[in-house]
Amino acid sequence: MAYANFATDGVDVAIRNVAGPVADDPTLVYEKLLDVGLVPVCSPKLGAKFGRLDAPDILTRLPLIHDDQLANRPGFPGWPDWLELAGVKAGDLAGGLRFSSPDHALDAAIEGAGVLLTHSILAYDELASGRLAALFDAVLPSRRAYYFVCPKAKEKNPNVQALRAWLGEEIRRLDRKFLLMPKAEPRCSTNAPAAFAAARES
After folding, report:
1. Would you tell me how many other CB atoms lie within 10 Å of the CB of residue 127?
2. Is residue 16 within 8 Å of 146, Cβ to Cβ?
3. What share of the chain is helix, strand, coil (3-state, %, to 5)?
4. pLDDT in tens, 109-146
5. Minimal CB count within 10 Å: which of 9, 145, 164, 193?
6. At 98, phi and psi to the nearest 5?
7. 14-201: what fold?
8. Are the beta carbons of 88 and 188 closer than 8 angstroms?
């Protein structure tokens, strides 16, 4: 997907998902908003069906959900990379449900169809509401981040400044408990048994 063209598209500001270091372009202003890390999430309904999900190797026996929109980005990590990070030998990962839309993949996870590997900012509302839980705290770095971007010539525009300030404030208000970010030394302890225990008791 091509980025909007500031010169021809009538756009003053963009939020871009950027791979690696930002382009060295003196005509643009970049401000990093959030790093993108991937974490497995699922519904408490899945815990009610399969029991305790307290070790990463359980993922080799659970239905996996694939977000092909993420997977089709060049160099973007996926299930094999997360399992390697967690020290789990991956089996056949071709099965499971596949979606071309992140929204549909999230909906399937909420309904208990399987475990989805996604980045926590996409699943933030569902994680905060308890409709989804992050299974483990090992967050896979993606080498991508969200950036606020605008032309240098527009940086002092009052509307651009207001939007930039508002975005910064909204991000500061996010609960870090549910905004899972990559760590320097990822661990793989479980996050979710309490949510699953509640689901089994209901």
Report:
1. 23
2. yes
3. 35, 25, 45
4. 999 999 999 988 889 999 999 999 888 877 888 888 89
5. 9
6. -125, 135
7. D-Maltodextrin-Binding Protein; domain 2 (3.40.190)
8. no
